[in-house]
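TICKET #2291
ISSUE: user wants both folds in one file
ATTACHMENT 1:
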Amino acid sequence: MNLSTFIVFPLALVVIFTLLVASVKILREYERAVVFTLGRFQKVKGPGLVLLMPFIQEMVRVDLRIQVIEIPTQDVISRDNVSMKVDAVLYFNVVNPEHAIIQVQNYLPATNMLAQTTLRAVLGQHELDEMLSERKKLSTDVQSILDAQTETWGIKVSNVEIRTVELTENMVRAIAKQAEAERDRRAKIIHAEAEFQASQTLTNAAKVLSSIPAAMQLRYLQTLTEIGAEQNSTIVFPMPIDIIKPFLELLENVGKAPRPNGAIHDALTPDVPLNA
């Protein structure tokens, strides 16, 4: 009798301890328990102490913290047929533990695979320039599509960041040539616009100077003063017609002075006496 008691009592203690371990669960603040009774969903419990009926109830732990998934490098072909490699980072968390366990077999790899396909599909609809200049907008588009598709799984996609857009060496050289040609085009346009504005200004100045002849003469005299200040040994300067025009008119009037009998002759030609 004492021997049977010595054997049964420890065995009973082991059974009781096993039942307690199976029935008592402690969940942290960021954990929830999806409880099933005989295979049917009962409720979501936690955090804290959770009591289960041994051999009748079971639970699945769900982490509610934000999880980070590194999307592997994807081969993407843009809309303008440029091949590249793109990778990204996905941030999400479980907001509905019941759906995350019941609606999808394993929500973590499912979300990862969905993110890869969505990233390729979204980036394939845009050109290379848009991928490089509007990366934030593309990340927002991928995030909104993933969030809408994973909502039925009880998952909230909070952010997607496109981390790297890697091009081949040939594409890098082609883009560099394109950027250089674009800079040359802009420089030529700016130079042409400057020439156009300068010509307009010169046209306006010419109109003002032509309306007042004295202004033109003053401008020439000012130019002579500026050239003389540089102490040049030789100055080649065009003589404006407006300056010598009064002298030419004076010589013309003198040459056509009237004779006493009313005839007009050249004053510079001497009179030759006529033989009677």
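ATTACHMENT 2:
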Amino acid sequence: MKKPYVAIVDDDSAFANYLRTFLSLRGYDTRSYSRGDEMIASVKQGDPPDIVLLDVMMPGMNGIETLRALKAAKPDLQAIMLSGREHASTIVEAVRLGAADYVVKPDDPEGLGEIALDAAIKSAIEKTRLVSEITELRRQLSDDQDRAFLFWGDSPEMKTIATVIEQVSDSDVTVLIRGESGVGKELVARAIHQRSPRRDRPFVKVNCAALPGELLESELFGHEKGAFTGAATTRVGKFEQADTGTIFLDEIGEMKAALQAKLLHVLQDAQFTKLGSNKPINVDVRVVAATNRDLEAMLQRGEFREDLYYRLKVIEVTVPPLRERRGEIAHLTGFFMDRYARRYNRQARQLSDELTGLFQSYEWPGNIRELENMIKRIVILQDEQLVVREMTRSGRPVAMPAYAAAGVGVGAPMRGPIAPPVANTDDDLDDDEAASDEADAPPAPGSRLADVAKAAALKAERAIIEDTLNSVHWNRRRAAEQLGVSYKTLLNKIKECGISRK
């Protein structure tokens, strides 16, 4: 293991030699400099130490000036100031500039000064280690996000979304991300943030479904001490934490109406007040929201504010489910396999042809999150047969249209909630989708059971497709989204069932 490297900057050669001996006995590598500019030149040449012991009083460039230049060259460098005596004003200035500690030069016979210096060095080294770990974790997270984002370039379904992300990232417009649970809405939000001018500022995520309304308000906007029972201290809210950065409001459809009104005020005025306070707080925050709920249906039921809906929906991105992005499954499988093999120190496995085939035919009700968890189990347990049995037992190894359940059993749920009137944005259907009465004709006497079942299923499909199309005023893209199928599949079904606009 590499020894920590400590640089000594002191014009007193006798004291510098003493420090080198002191540090060597404790397992540190050392190097000494007699002037501050020598130390700065070494750092700029790419040879920074882990810790700097910096004398306050030096001729020419003193310790405070050297500290200021060191922090400008390498902000995360840990520097401990050394002085023959305590000067309050110097201590305050050193701390303000980012010094890790301020220690009086050890010269007492009891050795208390050496104990204090040793403790300060160990503390600074621990801070350096933590900074290095956080930097590496952020780098890995950024690499993971970039690698996942690159998959979209090979996915026809996601190319449009990738293009929108690139187009809107450099602005501060509000973005509403829609899609089923587990499709990667947070990844889209992070991609927007990472490609924006705010990339070096905070990205703060809030799950609006995780807390009841009373606690969510405190989570978002903070509270003053004594604002309510149990508020023992003042709390800084997520909006204040995200100042100059991005806040991601996940599951925005779960937010209660009263809190929606306060959020609307923040979006309009960039200002809010904490619970229990009358003092307004100004914030500069970009808002990205996500939901898997049908906000249009919630508007009609009065569960979501119309003015907030249009405030959030400046730019709308709809992420398709994994079953409509099967070209990404192989990339995502390799990506998660590599990630968790490294994280859990396991061997990366090559999936069998059987499991690869199941992955391509499975319906993926849990989308990418379900795929990720399956790969995680394979990596940890090193046994893919557990996943094979689980997928086979689920009864959903083969992809089925989401609306197929409408013709099965009694009381089957009807997909496609009523949506508000929307102008038809699609081209008219071709002549080959003219009305046909075949689907409505009853089966002839003596028909085979399979034929009767097929006719019943076709009739049920036609009924639910017609109802959904009429409810959205024949906006076929919106109907496809509500029915849980691709736009192309819906057009084929319209043609197959002989449905025409009346």
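RESOLUTION: both attachments delivered.
EXTRA DETAIL ON ATTACHMENT 2: The two ends are 78 Å apart (CA to CA).
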